Amino acid sequence: MTTGRLDRGDGTHLAWIRQDGRGPTIVFLPGFRSDMTGDKATALAAFAAERGQAMLRFDYSGHGASEGAFLDGTIGQWASDALTAIDRLTEGPLILVGSSMGGWIALLTALARPDRVTALVGIAAAPDFTQRLMWDSMAPAERVTLVNEGVLHIPSQYGDPTPITRRLIEDGRDRLVLTAPIAFPGRVRLLHGQADPDVPWELALRIAERVTSDDVEIVLVKDGDHRLSRPRDLALLTRTVGALLEQDGA
């Protein structure tokens, strides 16, 4: 296992952890305000290490151990961070594993690197969430505050209020993927808890409808929450990734 910091080109350094091994390389894409040290990322890293599988995980700018201010971040910037890390730290075919916002970043990455991404796993994947789950659910007064002040703080059950910037919302509108077919022919596996209070499980059905691949499977966990980080949820994740690797002959 090696760790490092990668200059993305503007002096901002992204923190990363890479495990060498056989391909395809597993790439973990964290969620909004999450990082590469969470339960799902570390469980997947242990799984990859046990089977000698290559894996990369990293923090977007403004997240975890990476540099940059969170409030300066946008979907476009974080998707660019992902491409920078992937292009400079990996080779060959990839299996992308995206959690929540990471599912959106995974879809954008698959569209940007169609020759490299062979499969995609979404864990409570939340493409287009800035529009569907944030802007569309805001009260008129909240929208006024966001537009006029540039930032809105919304309560979070996971800790301090979440700052939502106007820039994040506006940039997100330029990155929407569920408004048209998603041209990805690879294998797609979507894991979603039906007790998820943050991202409706029906969004997995929408993703399956929009992606052009015919090899799409959805697993719904009836009592699963948004994080899907219980031991049996993590076992489901590693089984899912393991099955994809077996299909690749890894």
Describe this structure in a few short sentences.
The chain has helices at 39-51, 75-89, 101-112, 129-134, 140-149, 166-173, 202-210, 231-247, and strands at 2-7, 13-19, 22-29, 53-58, 94-99, 117-123, 151-156, 159-165, 187-193, 216-221. The chain is α/β, with parallel strands linked by helices. The longest helix is centred in the last third of the chain and has 17 residues, at 231-247.
List the helices and strands and how they pair.
Elements: E1 2-7, E2 13-19, E3 22-29, H1 39-51, E4 53-58, H2 75-89, E5 94-99, H3 101-112, E6 117-123, H4 129-134, H5 140-149, E7 151-156, E8 159-165, H6 166-173, E9 187-193, H7 202-210, E10 216-221, H8 231-247
Parallel strand pairs: 3-4, 3-5, 5-6, 6-9, 9-10
Antiparallel strand pairs: 1-2, 2-4, 7-8
Tags for this model:
two-stranded antiparallel ribbon; 26% strand; 8 helices; 8-stranded mixed sheet; Rossmann fold; 250 residues; 36% helix
